[in-house]
Write a structure and sequence with these properties.
The chain has two domains: 50 residues, Arc Repressor Mutant, subunit A, CATH 1.10.10; 115 residues, no CATH class. Helices cover 43% and strands 17% of the residues. The chain has eight helices and eight strands; from the N terminus they run H-E-E-H-H-H-H-E-E-H-E-H-H-E-E-E. Strand 7 and strand 8 form a beta hairpin. The longest helix has 14 residues.
Length: 178
């Protein structure tokens, strides 16, 4: 469950969250079942950051857990990776890097917009852009978010077309006759 989905569920239960320094008051506490309370404790820093507008600092354990997956080549990540939630400084929402389209569907069922999710196949297409600059990365990311879509094809100059399978799990290469 994403932090945003957690906050929506709490709001739907009539729960009010009040930040007080590094503490979080929950009113009425009786409206929060133990499983939601556990999730709220787990994501307390992120919830406080959202409610106060201050950036959250994630514990180092998240980096340590993600490191093996961050070191993987993307084709290996597609087979053996894990879903990673990533925060970038120039974007006001987190992004998800996932191995397959099935992982994307699972996150979407939890309420994550498709535009925030990048499958390994989409990342491979993105990395194939020869003249990729930081500005290109920002532009494409904002476009994907704005359209709440997925990348289905990338055309590189002189190298034909590279298209993604509809579910985002496999990458197919077609030579362009154009």
């Amino acid at each position: 469950m994403t932090v945003e989905a957690l906050l929506v569920e709490l709001r739907d239960r009539g729960v009010q969250l009040v930040p007080e320094g590094d503490r979080l008051r929950v009113r009425p506490a009786s409206a929060v079942p133990p499983d939601l309370l556990g999730r709220l404790r787990e994501h307390k820093a992120e919830v406080l950051a959202l409610l106060t507008g201050r950036p959250s600092v994630r514990p180092a354990r998240h980096v340590a857990e993600a490191l093996p997956f961050l070191r993987m080549p993307l084709d290996v990540f597609a087979r053996a990776g894990a879903s990673l939630e990533v925060r970038v400084p120039w974007l006001d929402v987190t992004l998800w890097m996932v191995p397959t389209g099935r992982d994307a569907v699972q996150l979407m069922a939890e309420g994550v917009q498709r535009g925030r999710i990048w499958t390994a196949a989409e990342l491979m297409q993105f990395m194939a852009i020869a003249d990729r600059t930081p500005e290109t990365v920002r532009t494409l990311t904002h476009a994907k978010l704005g359209m709440d879509g997925e990348i289905t094809e990338v055309r590189t100059r002189g190298n034909g077309r590279r298209a993604l399978a509809q579910d985002g799990d496999e990458e197919h290469r077609r030579e362009s006759s154009e």
